[in-house]
Amino acid sequence: MPLSAPRLRIVSPAGTIPFGRGFYQLEEEILYLPVEYPGEKPKFFSFIESETVSIQCDNEGRLIFIELTLPRRHWIERADISFPDYAEPADIRFLDFRQKMNNPMISCDRYRQNIHIEFSPLQSVSSFHLAKNLIAEVSADNYLIGIWATDFVDDIAGREISAWRKSIRAAKNQAVAVY
User: Does 56 fall in a domain?
Assistant: First the structure.
């Protein structure tokens, strides 16, 4: 039986908020949401997925990548889309591995540049940063209710995502060189 919403473990953050950014691959009509951890290169270990969304984690349950295969033209435009007012920093770990989940509802603003991936209609009681530009809405019993992805860019042939990753590595190297 598919999951209705992934389970999470949430604790106080141990470091900085990871880098996150969205890249809509125009030729594939897929939204890539990579997460980069300062000074680390986590490796893929497992996933939680539906027909349209794949959440990929490392062996510690940390989010490393989200892939949304539902083309942008099929996202539900909502005039009343309302981002969380506040999101706390947190160390969030996914507890379900190699699981199928129900297809989430995908809605967006009128510009189709900010999306909400809704996994469950349960009431959200908290919002936490998964990464910069990625916010998790969580239920009282630590189920993932939704993910907000903001400020993503159109990309062709992975050029923008590659340039973004290079800029993060360059910034990390400069920060290390200063100390």
Answer: yes
Could you say which DSSP state residue 73 is in?
A: G
Cα distances from 112 to residues 62, 71, 106, 116, 174, in angstroms, run: 27, 11, 11, 10, 34
The pLDDT tens digits of the residues spanning 84-115 come to 889 999 999 999 888 899 999 999 998 888 89
Take residue 148 and report the two structure tokens written for it: 């907000």
* Residues 21 and 34 sit within 8 Å (Cβ to Cβ): yes
Of 30, 61, 33, 29, which Cα lies nearest the Cα of 45? Answer: 61
Position 1 in a domain = no
133 is a domain residue: yes
Question: pTM of the prediction?
Answer: 0.89
Q: Which of 109, 101, 30 is nearest to 72 (CA)?
A: 30
C-alpha torsion angle, residues 36, 89, 60, 63 (rounded to 10): -50
Which residues form the domain of 123? 8-178
Mean pLDDT over residues 3-25, rounded? 89
The domain total for the chain is 1
The sheet carrying 144-149 orders its strands as 76-77, 105-108, 115-118, 144-149, 134-138, 126-131, 88-89
Residue 130, domain member (yes or no)? yes
State yes or no: pLDDT of 176 exceeds 70.
no
